[in-house]
Amino acid sequence: MAEIRTEETAMHRRALLASALAAPLATPAFAQGATVRLVVPFAPGGTSDILARILAPEMSRLLGQSVVVENRTGANGNLGAELVSRATPDGSALLITDAGALATAPSLFPRLTFDVLRDLAPVNLLIYAPYILAVHPSVRARNAQELAELAKRSPDTLNVANSGVGAANHLTAVLLAQHWGANLTQVPYRGGAAALTAVAGGEAQIIINGATATAPFTRDGRLRAIAVSGPKRLEGLPDVPTFAELGWPATESGTWQGIFAPGPTPAPVIARLDGALRQILAQPEIARRMADLGADVRAMGPEPFKAWLANEAESWGRVVRANNIRPE
């Protein structure tokens, strides 16, 4: 019996040793217990900020550590992206941003201080929110046809507010103006929230911006919705046609919100974050809140998200180069 107990003890010790050796492999270098910074590279009130504040409490609960939203604005969102790209790759610093805007950065900023496809690791593509093209109520255009005709008839008299030079909403406006045969004056602001405020106040006349942030302005009459991008009409705006129905380009343009980690982040850490985000997005209450904001959940894992980002960078890069768009 003593020999059996000795063998059992030896086996138990080996099991404990194997468990101890395997444990760090489960989530290597994950910042257990540390506060996770969810960096929004735009001002409060925009789509990324709204989404971050919805997700942060649920992320805190599932990760078992505090998740705080941190707005770090500047350089068309590149300041916050650079901050995360240089952070310790342990899951303690994450970027939530419009992935479409991030995709334009390599073509728009030749001297970008980080490599979008190398220095940032896609974690999960979260939602797609179509653009709402809206105008200030003073604009004498009640529908899409009237707006296109007004823009063509009165060149350079209509100002289009955007969230920054080279942002996807800026490029969408460029493509629409070309399609209409019109000249629109592009006015960049520091983020979508500032652009919305400018158009609602009459400082500019037109905006193309994510439905998540823009829909409340159309519901209360501060803006008049003219058209929406995406595959279908919005439930909250059933009378507003899609770009596709109108025969307009950039039908799939919109805000594609995603979360990124620093490039060297170990795959198991990325997998843990991806898993937590998938659980959050699968919650009926979260899906309902996204729908109320005019957004569709588009959960996409790290590898498909990475391929999507590379494709978007190439597609929007062609638009940037063809129109010789450069930051001011």
UniProtKB/TrEMBL annotation:
Protein family: Belongs to the UPF0065 (bug) family.
Highest taxon above the source species: Bacteria
InterPro entries hit by this protein: BUG, Bug_dom1
Keywords carried by this UniProt record: Signal
Signal peptide residues on this chain, from the entry's feature table: 1-31
Protein's name according to its UniProt entry: Tripartite tricarboxylate transporter substrate-binding protein
